[in-house]
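Notes from the 1:1 (GR / supervisor)

We went over the backlog. Supervisor wanted to see one worked example end to end before approving the batch request, so GR pasted a single chain during the call. The sequence is below; no edits were made to it. Supervisor asked that the structure be written out right there so they could see what the output format looks like.
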Amino acid sequence: MTTIQEQKRDFTDDATSLIPEATELAKRSLDDAIGLLMTLERQCRLANDFKTLKHVCLSMVQICYEQNNWIKLNSTVAVLSKKKSQSKVAITAIVEECIALIDKTPSEEVKVELINTLATVCEGKMYVEAESARLHLMMARILEANGKIDEACAKIQDVHVETYGSLGKKEKVEFILEQIRLNLIRKDYIRTLIQSRKMSRKLIEDPELESQKIQFYMLLIEYYMYEGNTWEITQCWYKITETISVKAQP
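Structure output shown during the call:
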C-alpha cells in the first residue's frame, strides 16, 4: 500500500521549464497555455507538492492578466478553486493575488465580475474569511456609489467581522463603522443600534483608533438625535471631547 509520504514528488524542475513555455504560448493561444499548466497543476496537487502548486496557480493568474483576458482569468480562478482536494495554500494565494489586481481592472463591470468570482471562491472557507470581508466591503462601496444603498447595506449586513481572528483591530472597527453608516443612510435605526452594539467600547478607546472613535460617536449622535435621547447625545460628545486630538485644539 502506497503511503501519502511516498506519493510526494517535487515538480520544481517541471515548473521551471513549463511556466516560461506557457507564457510564450499564451501570446498565440491563451487556452493552450492554461491547458498546459492545468496538467502540471493536477500533478502537483495529487503529489502534494504545495509549493510548486501555488507557483503554478499564480502563474496562470499572471498569464491571464498579462494577456488582458479578464474573462479567462475569472474562469481559470473558478476552475482552480473547484479542483478536488484543492490546497488551502493555493486558494489563499490565488485570492490574495487577484485582490491585488482588482484596482487594475479596465472597467467597473470587469471589477464587479472579478469581485463576485472571488467572493464565490471564498464562500464558506474560514481560512479566507478576511479576504471575503474585504471583497464584500469593496462591492458595497461600488453599490453605494451607484446609488444602490439598500443593496450596499445588504452586502455587508451579515458579515460578522468582530469574530474574525484574521482581521486586524482597525479593519474590524472600520468595517463595523461602514455597517452603522449605511444603516443610518437608509434610516434603518433598528439595525443601526444592533450594529453599534458590535463595537467593543474597550477597543474603540485604543489611542491608535482615535479617528475611528470620533467617527463612531458622531454616528451614534445621529442615531440618538433620531431617538431624541439628550442624555446619550451628551455622553457621546463627552467621549469625543475626551480624545487627545480634540483636547489639543483650542
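Supervisor's comment: The chain is about 70% helix and 0% strand.
Batch request approved.
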